[in-house]
Amino acid sequence: LLGVFMVGALVATMINVHLSWTPVIGDLVIDVQNNVDMIMPRLLPAAIVGAVYWLLGKKNITSTKAIFIVLVVSVALSALGVIAK
User: Fold this and answer.
1) What totals of helices (H) and strands (E) does the chain contain, helices first?
2) pTM for this one?
3) Per the CB 3.0–4.6 Å rule, which of 57, 70, 75, 77 could disulfide with 82?
4) How many domains does the chain have?
5) What angle do CA 2, 4, 10 make, to 5 degrees?
6) Cα separation of 55 and 65, whole Å?
7) Would you tell me the crossing angle of helices 63-80 and 43-58 to the nearest 10 degrees?
8) Domain containing 52: what range?
């Protein structure tokens, strides 16, 4: 139980991912990151950790492949302007 608590604390403090995508509808600019934070703060890092955990457990992907997948997806989303630090 203490290990799960520590992993959750590390996820919340060590993983920093922010959505920089802000759609514009007419004169209204929607801040997606603010809306996601209102639902649950630090939801995006928790979702990323959950996805990696799912890949490692259910899809039998090695940790090296998971690291490369996270790296490629992060670079691609950053280049597209969806995520930022």
Assistant:
1) 4, 4
2) 0.77
3) 77
4) 1
5) 100
6) 10
7) 140
8) 2-84
What distances in angstroms separate CA 69 from CA 3, 25, 26, 52, 64, one per listed residue? 25, 33, 36, 9, 9
CA distance linking residue 82 with residue 14, whole number of Å: 20
Determine the Cα–Cα distance for residues 47 and 28; give it in Å rounded to an integer: 28
| Phi, psi angles (nearest 5°) of residue 78 | -70, -40
Contact 83, 19 (CB under 8 A): yes
Residues 33 and 18 sit within 8 Å (Cβ to Cβ): yes
Alpha carbon distance 28, 41 (integer Å): 23
* Digit-coded pLDDT (tens) for 56-80: 998 889 999 999 999 999 999 999 9
